């Protein structure tokens, strides 16, 4: 899942982004509304965590722009205002969910994950292919009866490949969907992480390299 966090309080934005990354998500940050609009033009996001009370370009304007552009991203709006009227107004702007500040991080994660499960594109509770099983909600993966000890990035990579259900995924797509904008597109990041993941999955090999096309399970 790729997420954009839009929050002008830098310490809060950085803390939320780092927490979501620990949950295996690829996260970019925008500290104001104008930067947020630039991000959503350049990148495709599953969820935008949007502070409503942004300076310069207000969060309401960002939300309206996402709706007007028919962006695929779901919007989780954050605000210090917590009245019913505020929530209704935020949802009427086009937000998909609304979370008042202060919030518990566990609830934020749960809401982001729920928004990421799009109607018609929802993944099953468990992803399975051969003897490899991954449970996205419990954040555990197994090869047969052996639990796999994966880093967040390795877990996210395995989850994306399993969810593809046999489709060949290019290195470019993996970089765009599993990593954030800080990743250097000219490095061997994907190849290196695939190599580590293969090592942890063990034999017989699970991840197939399709010449000049990408990878699949």
Describe the fold and architecture.
The chain has 217 residues and is an alpha/beta fold. It has two domains: 115 residues, Rossmann fold, CATH 3.40.50; 90 residues, Winged helix-like DNA-binding domain superfamily/Winged helix DNA-binding domain (Arc Repressor Mutant, subunit A). The protein is 40% helix and 20% strand. It is built from eight helices and eleven strands. The strands form three sheets. Strands 2-1-3-4-5 form a five-stranded parallel beta sheet, with helices on both faces. Strands 6-7-8-9 form a four-stranded antiparallel beta sheet, covered by helices on one side. A two-stranded antiparallel sheet has the order 10-11. A hairpin with a 2-residue loop joins strand 6 and strand 7. Helix 6 packs across helix 8. The longest helix has 13 residues. The radius of gyration is 18 Å and the shape is elongated.
